[in-house]
Design brief:
Radius of gyration: 22 Å
Strand content: 15-25%
Number of helices: 6
Helix content: 25-40%
Strand order of the largest sheet: 1-2
Low-confidence stretches: none
Distance between the termini: 80 Å
Order of helices and strands: EEEHHEHHEEHH
Structural class: alpha+beta
Length: 188
């Protein structure tokens, strides 16, 4: 019987062990490995921290998998090369298929099919509506979206859509723009 919150055992002989990202788990094995927010908002934008956690995953976490073990990754997709992005790239050529479950705050078609309406086993939430209308009405989400898109659009895409975009833009970077004070000759 363990009393610490980071470990406990079941009456059927199973157990649970919890460790922070990058901490030692030597000597432990797992049948079901759950990684929950390995990067915080503060560390997600540090290339050094992402690289450290990503490079530790296979030798530090996956090597502890028991035969037939499952892996579950739960996180906000802050950046493209976060642990989820890293594993999707690494495992793309392997026999480790990932099933991605993504429910954006404003539902797209795939997200709406993941949610059933209460009391309506055949019904889906409509595309363009809130993923949780009782908690985050669509009007509130639209206001949040407008605020984020005006200031930090990458945060909207990360927090509410789970589809990260680069902070400085995708194709055209913010640094690609420059002010030109002179008129171009021959042009109004």
């Amino acid at each position: 019987k363990a009393s610490a919150a980071q470990r406990f055992f079941t009456t059927l002989g199973g157990g649970y062990f919890c460790a922070g990202a990058g901490t030692g788990i030597a000597g432990r094995g797992g049948d079901f490995i759950i990684c929950d927010d390995m990067l915080s908002e503060q560390t997600a934008f540090s290339k050094t921290e992402r690289t450290k956690i990503n490079n530790n995953y296979i030798p530090g976490i996956r090597s502890r998998s028991q035969p037939g073990a499952a892996e579950l990754m739960v996180n906000t997709r802050w950046v493209l090369d976060d642990p989820s992005g890293f594993l999707l790239k690494v495992d793309a050529k392997s026999k480790r298929p990932w099933k991605i479950v993504c429910v954006p705050a404003i539902l797209d078609e795939a997200g709406s099919k993941l949610l059933k309406r209460p009391g309506d086993p055949e019904g889906w939430y409509e595309v363009g509506t809130s993923y949780w209308p009782e908690w985050k009405p669509i009007e509130e989400l639209e206001e949040l979206k407008a605020n984020y898109m005006a200031t930090e659009p990458y945060k909207w895409w990360a927090l509410y859509i789970q589809n990260p975009i680069p902070q400085d833009g995708n194709i055209v970077k913010h640094t690609d723009w420059q002010w030109w004070d002179e008129e171009i000759k021959g042009k109004p």
